[in-house]
Amino acid sequence: MKRAWVFAVALLLKPVLGRAEPAPPLYENRCSVCHQAGGVGVPGAYPRLAGRAGAIAGLTDGRRAMVSAALYGVAGVLKVDGQTVVGVMPGFAEVKDAEIAAVLTYVSHLGGAHPKPFTAAEVAKVRQGDSLTPNQVNALLRQPAITAVAP
Questions:
Q1: What pTM does this model have?
Q2: Residue 3 within any structural domain of the chain
Q3: Of 6, 71, 129, 148, most Cβ neighbours within 10 A?
Q4: Splitting the chain (151 residues) into consecutive groups of 10 residues, what average pLDDT does each group show?
Q5: Cα 79 to Cα 59: distance, rounded to the nearest angstrom
Q6: 54: closest CA among 39, 34, 37, 70?
């Protein structure tokens, strides 16, 4: 009985204490180098994911843009948090669909949002479509609907 009570309290406090799910190994080994632990980014250099990715993942076009960014990379100019970011993010087309889905789910939950999880099937569907250049992915991320929810 005591264990059940302690477990229930821990579940209730988890959101209050801000404990996040652990980062997938792919995020830790590749993405966090630029986007940093917890997806906080580096202002003006590497875009923040925490709090932004969840808003983008709430949009159908946003989900496609996120999967495309992971697969094909991003190049060019983006405006994030009122700052211009100019750079290149490599694509990870060699990575398995399930691993990409796990990373996208992780980053979309940073900052407290909880859109539906990404799936390997969702990644595979984008992968089976037209391959995009990093500049074309940049254009997807600059769509007005996306920039409106994640300035």
A1: 0.85
A2: no
A3: 71
A4: 38 41 93 96 94 96 98 96 93 97 98 95 96 97 94 83
A5: 19
A6: 39
